[in-house]
Amino acid sequence: MEPNPPLRSDDGITVGLFWVSADGVYVGAPATAPAPRVVLETSGPRVTGPHGREWAWSDLAGLEVTEVPVRSTVQRWTTHAVSFVAAALDAWVPSSPTEMTVSITAPDGTILTPAYSSAAVAYSGREVDLSRRLISRFVQGTATPTVMTEWWVRTRPAGILRSREREALLELWLASA
Fold first, then answer.
1. Separation between Cα atoms, residue 47 and residue 32, nearest integer Å
2. Which residue among 16, 30, 55, 176 is buried most deeply as judged by most CB within 10 Å?
3. Where are the beta strands (DSSP E) in the chain?
4. pTM passes above 0.70
């Protein structure tokens, strides 16, 4: 996949494994075309790009995100501190986002597609667990990504949410399912 342009919080925001904006919910950061994207819609997931496909949630046996960058709180803070010092010394070079894999299990087989992590450093383990539970609810038909886009339209959050804020939002969305 080609690298993504820098994302701005007025375009959308990272909450768990998702990039939430008014125009949709993406698994990871929305990639630049023609790279594939995984868009979670009310009706089901859609993969864009050269081999685009879409499914109804009710047709899926599963949707899983693997190779997710997860770090402990200490590791995340250490990485942030090192990045800050490197930037202050003008030695910082932005790295490419971590590539994750989205596995969609449908009646005609399992489709694997890449997705970029939208986390600045890595996700907390709790954030990943809550995100996966929410995805499971989508597949089970007990929730839809609409709750996420509606939240974005209502709140238009400014800036980047902290880990605990993202976890609280995921918990709220799980509770409303």
1. 13
2. 16
3. 13-15, 18-21, 24-27, 38-40, 45-47, 53-54, 62-66, 99-106, 109-116
4. yes
